[in-house]
Amino acid sequence: MSRFIANARMYAVTPEAEAAWRALIEAIVAEAGLDFDYLAYPAPQPLEVLWRRGDLGAVQMCGYPIALGLADVVPIAAPIPAAPWAGGRPVYRSDLIVRRDAPYRTLEDTFGGRAGWTVEHSHSGFNAFRHHLLGYRSPDRPALYGSMAGNLVTARRILDSVLDGTIDIGPLDAYWHDLIAHHRPDLTAGIRVLASTDLAPIPAFVAALSLPTEAVESLKHAFAAAATRPWFPAPAATLRLTGFAPVTQADFATTLAWDRAAHAAGYPFPA
Questions:
Q1: Which of 121, 148, 119 is nearest to 133 (CA)?
Q2: Distances from the Cα of 163 to the Cα of 23, 129, 154, 235, angstroms
Q3: Are 43 and 100 contained in the same domain?
Q4: What is the pTM assigned to this prediction?
Q5: How many CB atoms are located within 10 Å of the residue 100 CB?
Q6: For residues 133 and 111, is the Cβ–Cβ distance under 8 A?
Q7: Can you give the CATH number for the domain in which 55 is found?
Q8: pLDDT > 90 in the chain, percent
Q9: Structural domain includes residue 270
Q10: Contact at 8 Å (CB) between 29 and 21?
Q11: What is the CA radius of gyration of the chain?
Q12: pLDDT confidence of 1, banded at 50, 70, 90?
């Protein structure tokens, strides 16, 4: 079998977190009887370029581009965050964050200000935010914000932009938020969550179509069994995880439903 790669860029929030991801992935891959090369792929390198590689073995990918078919991949398994809002399921949401000292008390208080989003293929940084805002629009108020900063690319840039006042509010992947608050509480001390979106399927580990079916099935079993292994608790504590659940492309249909609802309402971009 050709060499394949593993990567955890989406939730490698600090070097310590990435080291834990690497150790965990390597243990799972070994459990599956496989051997992948861990590839570091730090921001701001474009994730869509990574996802389109033909040698993906176990790489984190957002569910919205999985559903959109942005790359030809096979979903394998998704993490189950230890956060109470996950309820033991492979789900997440977007936290709509503002500065801790901002005067806003409700989401409506931010309307007319400046908001931001990451990239158009992001669920947490674009699609979920847009879906959440749909319920506040009306014929008399088709746009909610005075201005919108798009293409901020990363969750970290959303966080930094709120902290430095570039934007008043922005969507932050809640699992990423949980991780960065755990590892770098100094970065999150200056923000608070004003509202959160509905839950949706969390990003998953995927493989390229070229990974043999037998290897994919072995990986699914290894991810599902990981929480029962003696090597799991240490990296899981670092990564705020309780385990993994096998997933298929159909599991991400929610993201497409939210996309269709936005386009049907004439609201292709958060505004």
A1: 148
A2: 32, 19, 14, 29
A3: no
A4: 0.96
A5: 12
A6: no
A7: 3.40.190.150
A8: 97
A9: no
A10: no
A11: 18
A12: low
